[in-house]
């Protein structure tokens, strides 16, 4: 007859093996059925071996609870269990006949003995400053824990801030053994916290130093352990399903707000999202997936996320009311309108409603204008809403400012400071600028140097993309990208942000810092196709638009004011003529031409800076005088490399292999002798005569 320990080992092993085959997780009841199927006669054997009332199902629950503390399992609170990446790794590393139970017990007892230390680590993570991360070694040392056990525990329990524990290189520690899904969840949280840079890397400057961490621990020791989470803010609209707004307009008099339950009025505070989704899918199978998902979000937010002290905004047309949720109690509105969930609200604008466009910021008014949504989260506007209801006003966040060009910056690009200052002034007025001109005038170089100056030389605040005929909206903003299948998931498509959306997200998280997107050769792309609905936002930064791949009821997208776009255009290919009126209206256009300031003096200043003779500048002037077509004149960049002037054949090499081929293409088929007209020998003779006359 099998002993209790043998049966326990069998249950534990089967539990892990079944979950290993179901990476999506299983409800504990389904899981138990599969464990029994794999072990016929288990329940009878348990009765014979174990005295007392403990059932094998209960024993499996205890084992699962210990495995969670060991960092090898995760529970969602609604009965679904799954193995963590660390649990899968542990199972794969053990022999087939190895007993998992003692290992789980050992790790569990270590956790139990060090429970206070784990609580300390959790407190530190919960109190981390916004946008900061901490090194695993530092957190383990300050809490006195084993780094591997700590990391696996955090990723299993999903302690608040678990994703902000990284290794010395700013990556998720390898000892966590995260699955692809776990890593994606961690990256999404890091991105939402503003810790990932535009290229998807972790910002090392956001790491909490050892001194800051120890100071944080000291502060936590004296802080109130019962500090409540920060209040959220919500938009709630209560139009009756029959179209009657009277239900909504009576909220202020009655001191409530409500949400149409659509048959789900039995839900109670604290219910998990999975339960809400199951309820909605059972009640509304005939609805579209988008409609069901929108209702799930609204119900779960209203029932379980909304708390006493949260701010609530509602509107009827332009009339806006603001209030504060008065308690945790959730009721139904049966006396006046059945099937509505109700929360008590203290309305602060009963006698003086606000005007949507006069009293609210343009950004908040735009978000309130999102159609087809009964509930939206407005926590990003909480400070503004607190000020509107007379709550505690916080210091106004510093607005971003574009720095004036310095003399040092002007000298570094060999251009006039006043001209550069005008470019900055243009961007302050409308943050889109196109630098256009013939080839070699330094458009891309100037755009990059200007971006470095405006962002304070922060590489994470700048990004460069190059348009081309096949470049699309999906490349530029967001689109679905294929991902390969593996043991954890099947092949499919993922909505992936492009450079504009990535940089816009970073700019929104750091509103006091300028961010610059450089679009090289902007006119080579199909601009209407690439920008799509974003064209509107270039002119109206204070408005939002529904996105091509946006879901029903989302809050739309707006371009942050601190995101600057600098484009470059090459006039030699004539494609500037194809830029439509809408594009011209949304951008400033500034010419860089070899015959006009500031480009006309760049080469001479560069030569003087490097103690080189003026001859190349004279040759370039003579060349451009012979080119009748203004758009095909040659810029100075071709001659601004020291390697050209350090070799006796350097200038000749550039002329033969770069400049003359451009002009041959320009004169193709018109009978011009390019060598005789533009060759270096001819130009030297003319330049010499010009120099002698001067």
UniProtKB/TrEMBL annotation:
Q: What is the lineage of its organism?
A: Bacteria, Bacillati, Actinomycetota, Actinomycetes, Streptosporangiales
Q: What is this protein called?
A: 5-methylcytosine-specific restriction enzyme B
In its UniProt entry, the species of origin is given as Nocardiopsis flavescens
InterPro entries assigned to the protein according to its UniProt record, in alphabetical order: AAA+_ATPase (IPR003593), ATPase_dyneun-rel_AAA (IPR011704), Methyl-DNA_Rec/Restrict_Enz (IPR052934), P-loop_NTPase (IPR027417)
Molecular functions per Gene Ontology: ATP binding; ATP hydrolysis activity
In Pfam terms, one family for this protein is AAA_5
Span of domain AAA+ ATPase: 429-593
- UniProt cross-references to SMART domains, sorted A to Z: AAA
